[in-house]
Amino acid sequence: MNASLSHRVALVTGAGSGIGRATALAYARAGARVVAADIDRASAEETAQTIIEHGGQAIAVDADVANAHDVEDMVKQTVRHFGRLDCACNNAGIEGTLAPTADYPVEAWDRVLAVNLRGVWLCMKYEIPHLLAQGGALVNIASILGVVGFAQAPAYTAAKHGVIGLTKAAALEYAAQGLRINAVLPAFIETPMLERAGMLDDPEARAAITRLHPIGRLGQAEEVAAAVVWLSSPAASFVTGHALMVDGGYTAQ
Question: For residue 213, how far is the Cα from the chain centroid?
């Protein structure tokens, strides 16, 4: 079936870098007009400009997904500029602090849950009415840590488990109305987030996380983006409520 997104409008949060930027570019290559949203306006503009330089259409929007006003305005700007919303990828997220559960700072817990779970719900809350009007598709970026545990990352793990549950609940609510809602679950992907966690520059740390993937390497942001575009396209027309692993075999062990 056709994976083209020609004449459609796609919104990506966290589009300034990593998986978000790769997804915004992949949407554009599939023919979509793209809204690149990020808390860092300059990085969102870089993504949008790259799309424009390659012949696509895009705008940049700054938004903190944990802020309801920002999210509502982000969606309003999308519809005001392009007239519709067909696809959304709720990708924005933060890694948070690494600490055991009993030692986890309250402020860090609240921020991780605010961005990684509440932020996804807020995006869905304001995106869904417009997506329903188009019979669209919504993809949430969860993580392999939405189905397995990871020591020292209780907040991130809890939030990503929540994203999967939220995805499935919403998929059931809107399936009969023509809106498909799915999640993509990446393993360790070479992104700025992994760099900030110190897992790419340290050879021993890099080797250790690489060994967790039976495929023998870390993932690339473009590989996650390809899954998002497929789930957003007519090629995945009978897929909803699904949590798609893009994990190099990590969770098959």
Answer: 21
Q: Which residues are catalytic?
A: 156
For residues 65 and 58, the answer to whether their CB atoms sit within 8 Å is no
Label each residue of 113-170 as H, E or C.
HHHHHHHHHHHHHHHHHHHHHHCCEEEEECCHHHCCCCCCCHHHHHHHHHHHHHHHHH
Convert the pLDDT of each residue in 141-177 to its tens digit.
999 999 999 999 999 999 999 999 999 999 999 999 9
> Tokens 């075999």 map to which residue?
249
9-252 homologous superfamily: NAD(P)-binding Rossmann-like Domain (3.40.50.720)
Residue type at 48 in one-letter notation: A
Q: How many CB atoms lie within 10 A of CB 251?
A: 13
pTM: 0.96
